[in-house]
Amino acid sequence: MIEMIGGEMPSFTEDRPRAGGALFGYLAGQLPPGADVLVAGPHTDELIDALAERASVTCLVRSEPEAIELDARGLTVLCGTLAKLPVAERYDVVVALDGLDRLCSVEDEQLDWAASLQALKRVLRPGGTLLLAVENELGVHRLVDPSTHTSAQTDSAWRPLGEFDTKPGNPTRLAGKLSAEGLAIDWLGSAWPVPESPTLIATPNALQDGPTDVLAAVAASAVGSAYVEKAVLSDPRRLAAAAVRGGLGPEFAASWLVVAHRAPRPAAALALPPVLAGDDSVVEIAPGPEGTWVRRVLIGDAGVLNGPLPVGRLLEELLLGAALRHDLPLLRRLLTGWAAARPETTADNVVVHHDAFAVLDPSIPPQTDVIRRFAQTLLGGGYAHPWPAATDLATLTSVLHGAAGLPDAVPPVPAEDDIPLPDSRREHEEQLRALRRQIADATSRAQWYERELNKRDKELNKLRKQAAIFSGTVSFRVAKIGYGVARKARNRLRKGLK
């Protein structure tokens, strides 16, 4: 059934990805069964179906074609703008995992973030639960995006991002705004790599008190997977890892996910772990006995992930740091230990604690020639290293093989086996600078050789002129005739002796 509430957009279709994914699906599965749920904004069909299996779902969308599709699937639909949403406390749960930016229509008033939050709160019953995602305008996904957000990039972005808005800029301010609206926070998490489909959600306490180095590695892995071969300003993996290690993970996360309630506190409050990770499978990471952190698979078949979380720094970061410092002893020690302990695991999936090498994600299958893949990371990222003469992949791989104590011979690897990396403009610029330095050096050498050749040509011409002058004198001619006579006499003498 469709109810046109006003402000609907008859010929408009959302042109950005909808909110969904495994982690959002897990959150939907934690809601109390039988509840009246309002799903505000565009969400994936899988997420809506997961909610509809355990609750009575009403969808609020501004696109009329989307409303018709939802109605054809047997869902109750409110089609129109958020400003026209009927004011009635009739929902136990409001799900706005797409945020509040795609709820208003061009056909009516454009509500800002604070006004949109108030509109959703008004339809929430006392004791009701709000699931809200808030995009971070200074998140990693924004900082590496080469496009500007002050101009419209899609049809749905008719209000380009400006500096004047009521959206909170960090988790503390978000908590304050929700509290000012009478909403108490039950759980708050920072999400990576993109707001619409995160694969890692961690609470600020987990990022502060948990295994920082490993969580930084997990964040880098999540971000790297999302930006494979995509154009970015700089490598998002390094930025995400540095933010988490530096204690600024929540401030640079792509979005914040909030579970809040309207007083009084609901009897069936959501109990969520401090860290959720996964794309297909869903894994929780929580404190275990004796100060360790433990992984447990909640959804999926990746049972190999169950158990203690390994501790230590990511091997790839340690190798890159040693390469940048030209620390050859450390590079040899890390490469040798890696080749001996984990020869089939890539450097971005190994953590190092003292001299122990552990696999971060055992569910990833073994890889071929992992040292070659690290060489590709060095060259593709434009990182400085102690072997500047090794400018091609085969040569650098051979050098790294030697440093690791392996045979120098590099087996041929098909091009399709190259490790995919983010297409980073900053790394391209560093590669261009390195090429410019090599070209300048080659030009300088060529100019020196040219000067030397010119100098030798002048000396040779001088000698030729002197030889020509000497060859024209009478004494030279007499000496030349005498030399010829002596040579003939010598030849006859030799024939007579024979």
UniProtKB/TrEMBL annotation:
A Pfam family recorded for this sequence: Methyltransf_11
Statement: the UniProt record of this protein carries the keyword Methyltransferase: yes
Key words of the record: Coiled coil, Methyltransferase, Transferase
Domain spans labelled Methyltransferase type: 65-131
Coiled-coil positions: 425-466
Recorded GO MF terms: S-adenosylmethionine-dependent methyltransferase activity
GO biological process: methylation
Record protein name field: SAM-dependent methyltransferase
